[in-house]
Design goal:
binds S-adenosyl-L-homocysteine; alpha/beta; Rossmann fold; two-stranded antiparallel sheet
């Protein structure tokens, strides 16, 4: 599968649609205009890759619709060279958008299958990010602090472990809630307090505790 003129045209159309819906930071739209979203999804879903809809990926998960990716990235206010942490790698699309914005990206996924798939996709696209297979609730304490943290699954409450891994002046964007989620921005202020703002309702797959190896790995276990 390649990235041809048709895909580029579809991307331009997607970005024009997003621009009409909300005054997104143009740097976010420019990044989304370059990431080949169709190469992050399974073959059967390629025709729908650029419609403003969530898509099914492996391990019973979904990737957010382009509008939600644009909004989370917009609220994150990523700057070049930022150290960014993503919770919920999924297929790696959001991570790729952050890379295109110039961030150094670390991303954690609890589903082994998705963790491995995202690495493969990045390798094929010759893109760079550091992927980890683990529980995002723990974050990456050894690599903290991060300038930016984006959670792409619905957290029941603001994950405090992650707040502690924010740099002073850093920002976290996290959908908070169990059934539906309120998009929440946590800014860590210089005096070590946090400022919290909310930005509308969304629906994400839940942020779950622990790691998931997936069926093929379980079957291989010797007991
Ligand atoms: N950002 C992704 C969207 C992923 S959907 C993309 O662009 O494709 C949300 C993902 O969060 C799912 O893959 C799910 O497995 C993962 N997830 C849920 N709870 C998690 C946790 N505690 N740690 C890491 N990943 C988690």
């Amino acid at each position: 599968m390649q990235d041809n003129l048709i895909h580029k045209g579809q991307r331009r159309k997607m970005v024009d649609e997003l621009r009409a819906l909300y005054p997104f930071d143009e740097r976010v739209l420019a990044a989304m205009a370059t990431v080949p979203r169709h190469l992050f999804v399974e073959a059967a879903l390629v025709p729908f890759a650029y419609s403003n809809k969530p898509l099914r990926i492996a391990a019973n998960q979904t990737i957010s619709q382009p509008y939600t990716v644009a909004m989370q990235t917009h609220l994150l206010q990523v700057r070049k060279w930022d150290r960014a942490l993503e919770i919920g790698t999924g297929c790696g699309y959001q991570a790729a958008v952050l890379v295109k914005m110039g961030a150094q990206v670390h991303s954690i996924e609890r589903q082994k299958e998705l963790y491995m798939q995202a690495q493969k996709t990045f390798l094929a696209l010759r893109m760079d990010a550091i992927f980890s297979y683990g529980d995002g609730y723990e974050g990456m304490p050894l690599l903290a602090p991060f300038d930016r943290i984006v959670v792409t699954c619905g957290a029941p409450a603001i994950p405090q472990q992650l707040v502690m891994q924010l740099a002073v002046g850093g920002r976290m964007v996290v959908p908070v809630g169990s059934d539906t989620q309120i998009m929440t921005v946590v800014e860590r202020l210089p005096d070590d307090r946090c400022q919290i703002t909310t930005h509308g309702n969304y629906r994400f797959v839940p942020m779950l505790e622990g790691k998931e190896a997936g069926a093929p790995f379980r079957r291989q276990r010797c007991e």
